[in-house]
What we know:
The protein is of the alpha/beta class. The chain folds into two domains: 2-154, 3-Layer(aba) Sandwich (Rossmann fold), CATH 3.40.50; 185-429, TIM Barrel (Alpha-Beta Barrel), CATH 3.20.20. It contains 16 helices and 15 strands. The termini are far apart. The chain binds iron/sulfur cluster.
Amino acid sequence: MLIRIVSAPCVSAYLNLDHHFVELGEVAAHLRDRAGHEVRVVDGVLPEVTWDTVVEEALHATGLVVLHVTLDNTLETARTIRLLRQLSPGTRIALYGRGAYHLRRLFQRTDADWIVLEQDWEPALAEIAAQVAAGAEPGPVPGTLTRTAGTWTRGPAGVRLAGDWELPALDLLPVAGYARLPADESYPGREPERELAVGVSRGCDSYCGYCPIPDVMGRHEYFRTGLDTLAGYLRAARESHGYTAVSLFGANFTAHRDYVHDFCARVGTPRTGVTWKCVTSHAELDPPLLGEMAAAGCTRVAVGVESLLPDGRNRFSGRVGAERLADLGAWCAAEGVLLICFVMVGLPGQTRHEVAVTLDTVRAAGAVPRPMTYVDYRRLAAAEDFADVFWANRKTVSEPFGRGILSMRDTALAVHSWEHWLDTVGPAAGRTSGERPAAAPRRPAQ
Length: 446
Ligand code: SF4
């Protein structure tokens, strides 16, 4: 059976191609390589994918259409469901993705047949595909909501693959189009990389109130198995597509030291020719581990800082304080690893002073802040209109899904142009340093 996986066209507020490599690419690979279907991917994040493209797909759709729902394209997904129902009434429609999870209440008002809620998405979609291929009426599927005779029914608990995930199917993804999109990150003094992303873990054992990961990806972090397969995949991706770097998509890459040792030994740059970056917690990093990672080709590490109080403590227990952040910055600089710090702007009760202190402290540590807008994602479940979802993203503005005391203009400026914002707030906001530290030195080629 031919399965169309469609991410409805939209203008992104927050373009993060990691989501597309992982959420589209790994699901497409599973449905083709494990479930045995023909798969076609249409990714509306590309400007050349228009509504004409969607109508064309809808006119030819049969069997199953799987709609990938991000937080950028919920309104457009609802429109796509309507188009499919009008143009190919017999087609079955399944929704998955973080937008499907957060907006499950609104999507139950549409004519979709299934809403996949739980990770891992792939077994649920494979079961749905099996039902459609057999010509059966939609029936309950683990980890999903199923619509039968106009009523939505929750299936049993979802199935976890526990790290046994496919790698993104580069031959199914529009990777040439991805390469033409503007990079969502660039760093002074560093050559832009040709980068792909693979999922290295899913879920998180923590539950930070500002973060949707545990709800969307699961309350336990599973790590990818099959590291030799990953190494071979990266070597092939470099040869076939010229990729020079990989983003390891996951919450806490260094949560298990043995896993990092194993990864460095089996997937390091000496074996693949591809450098890598990861996200983790400051508590899981130290100089020997960073040295091992850098020697294995790690060029960037990102940690959550969120918000520092003027006395240097973190607003959140367990998050990094100013003193340790300075140490972390020094360790990374010594290894030539770029330290990226996620900063949350617009938290409840957070003042301009606190944001300025946070950005200045990150900068003084030789790290690069990546400020993002605080959004209370859990409020999305009560949204009454798909159009409202635009206001819940990390890069534009967050009203009415924020609860902060900063003005929307302050929040947007700090997120879009933090250095300019720091200049505008000046010493009155309690800046600790106006000097910019030297950039981290590049590590010599291995
Ligand atoms: S912020 Fe990081 S540690 Fe906290 S729940 Fe999200 S992924 Fe987990």
